[in-house]
Amino acid sequence: MSMESKFMKKLKPYVGVILLQFGSAGFAIVAKAALNQGTSHYTFAVYRNAIAALLFAPFALFLERKTRPKMTFTIFLKIMLLGLLDPVFGQNLFYAGMNYTTATVTSAMCNLIPALTFLLAWILRLEIVNFKRIPSHAKIWGTVVTVGGAMIMTLIKGPVLGLPWTHESNNANSSSSANNTQDPVKGALMIGAGCLGYSLFYILQAHTLKTYPAGLSLTALICTFGSLQGTVLTFMVERGNTSIWAVGWNAKLLAYVYGGIVSSGITYYVSGAIMKEKGPVFVTAFNPLSMVIVAVLSSFILAEQMDVGKVTGAIVIVIGLYLVIWGKSREQKEVMPITQQQHKSESSILATKTSEADNTKDSQISASEAGELNDSHSKIISGSEAV
């Protein structure tokens, strides 16, 4: 393998997670537009996952027809639980919590996902943590710094930077008007529970891929079961309210299609492929990067104001991500020689066993040949005595 191909192989996971964050940033915009038009978060989750299932199922059936593992009862239960954790539990609690609190609190709470995923992966031994090693400290503090940078972007404003392509918004404070129906504590608890659902989903997805490595099939099945379970939940909660199922050529349909293709289908598949190599912590560590992308794109496209808090938070997030990436890369370099040594040891043990088996076989053949010689010698002696 050439140096260029090795470099591209190492670069693929980083490009993949960055592109996922661009997709997440775009979905935040279209989803907010759909919710502002009165979209029910129950039907939002159902349609989003149903579209993803319809689009990915044919590719899974055709491309993985020879490599798809056999479905067992244990794998089936895991997929059912995956369809419940993110498409039903996580998405509905997250969007419902937005109705009870502000966008600022929502943005701050969703950055708990990297920290929760790291903690769960550590507890379940999916992530290596050795307090005596510097790479482990880099991963821990990198995760903390990344979450801290996202909090800075969300909670701290500071002086406005007068960039030439931006302008002051006259309606900057219009969205922060008081809302008597808000319950910040209830909203924060619901969003926090939704983030826990997302983190559990990433952990279980990484675990399921070890026994069911067909990524496209797993994605299609998760979206299918998520849509079915979401439909049952919607009928139970919204009995008699058939108007929430209406679909038109508007922002709602765009959000359903975009969410199904990008945020459900592509995100599940690509994140699963990256998890096989890097683990769930690596994937979720880049989540706060979407805030940086939204801030930069909003500055250029929507001419929104950029303040010191956003710039400072973005810089802190980049530093935290660098620490996580450095820690993961150093760990891989340390684990690789150990793995190679284990392979060598296994090969030498196998060679020794093969050699012993050959020697045993040769000794058995020699013994049988000696027995045959003794038998023939006895026959000759017996013949001579008879004569």
Automatic annotation (TrEMBL):
Q: Listed GO molecular functions?
A: transmembrane transporter activity
Q: How does it sit in the membrane?
A: Multi-pass membrane protein
What ranges does the record give for the region Disordered, renumbered to this chain? 337-387
What residue stretches are annotated with the EamA domain?
15-153, 186-325
Cell compartment(s), UniProt:
Membrane
Pfam families according to UniProt: EamA
Q: Where are the transmembrane segments?
A: 44-63, 75-94, 100-124, 144-165, 185-204, 216-237, 249-270, 282-302, 308-326
| Chain intervals with Polar residues compositional bias | 338-354
Q: Name one GO cellular component term.
A: membrane
Question: What are the record keywords, sorted?
Answer: Membrane, Transmembrane, Transmembrane helix
Which family does the entry's similarity section mention? Answer: Belongs to the drug/metabolite transporter (DMT) superfamily. Plant drug/metabolite exporter (P-DME) (TC 2.A.7.4) family.
> What name appears for this protein in its UniProt entry?
WAT1-related protein
